[in-house]
DNA sequence: CTGTCTTCTGACAGTAACTCTCAAATTCAA
DNA sequence: TTGAATTTGAGAGTTACTGTCAGAAGACAG
């Protein structure tokens, strides 16, 4: 999951689209932009559901959302961004920052991941599962998601460097963060592949436990 | 690093292009194809060096290699494949298969990685470092490489399932393999970023050690 | 309410990575 | 050497994306 980008660089908010809509008196322009953004995304997901991702062209999406193709690209720099961008990452990052410094890394990550995920799932379960499905089935999406994950790793390295005092670009920290991200992401995907029914916290404990055991040998 | 694909699905060999060239009496057709393949790739890498990856168009590469653009795509399904495809993976896979079953996973991986890498480095050091540089700097390449890594993870899951008896699609194994791949890949990249001078075996030991310590908490 | 200033939009032209098709050239096998 | 199989180049078409520009629409001052 990766941070969403608003078309307006002036007013950058980390909150969700929903929150922004509810949050008080945005100008007419801002409200229209939010509406357009949501119209485009929802038209796109509708088409993806019926035709599949690759069979759906940007022109079709633009037509369905009743905007011009130019406008589409103003809101989403690439077709992939429709699926990739969300507001999960900032939530997780701040969650992670909120954890006590001494706490074992694995615990921090687990707690920081689960809160926002539950929150998002409660609101947009279907969309999240469709995303995960696209992530699994569409190479272009998977590719982008992996690149974003790597970018998040860099952020997380910074964050961990602050807590541990290790150098942020040192091999130890980079390797550790890479491992944590890989295990987390694999677990979330496993969870999604099984319908999102199991308890994610338990799965994370299993996964990290298995890795720890094997690495301890 | 990912497995190369030959344009001929009939005669699929896992060996390196060099080996194939030396290996005895291929028909004239086969020899020409190998020659064309190498001409395209070497023309491409030459242009990449001077102009950069993205500034180089497929048409330019085709012109430099004196083939038609159609022919280019017959040899490399995408521009990325020029950089992505190599013959490292099959070597590593067979190396891994050759390790004793009881051995700790980390040791097996370390040993299986290092042999082929040294071998390739001895022959094509410059090209390998250019590849790693492109991998770091060009998003499209990074994306493809990460997807290939994920595909290799699936293969490795199968392999590990055979040895450990764990189910190949179970969370434990998937998480473990994801972690091992992530740490290995991060380490190789770290090594390449530092000019490929340090001893890769030592770096791997450091990286895996750090992860093990942190996960053990 | 009006005029002005800024921002957003759509139309259009262009590029680059592919895909498909077909005929000509080349290699192979008998 | 002839006929079959394979490889090649030419060309037309699709799609994602970029850049430019004029006109429409929201914001704001007076």
Automatic annotation (TrEMBL), chains A, B:
Record-level Gene Ontology MF annotations: DNA-binding transcription factor activity; transcription cis-regulatory region binding
Domain HTH tetR-type, first and last residues per copy: 34-94
Gene3D superfamilies in alphabetical order: Homeodomain-like (1.10.10.60), Tetracycline Repressor, domain 2 (1.10.357.10)
DNA-binding residues (ranges): 57-76
Short name of any one Pfam family annotated for the protein: TetR_N
Taxonomy, superkingdom: Bacteria
Swiss-Prot/TrEMBL keywords: DNA-binding, Transcription, Transcription regulation
PANTHER family assigned to the protein according to its UniProt record, in alphabetical order: HTH-TYPE TRANSCRIPTIONAL REGULATOR RUTR (PTHR30055), MYCOFACTOCIN BIOSYNTHESIS TRANSCRIPTIONAL REGULATOR MFTR-RELATED (PTHR30055:SF238)
Protein name per Swiss-Prot or TrEMBL: DNA-binding transcriptional regulator, AcrR family
UniProt organism field: Streptacidiphilus jiangxiensis
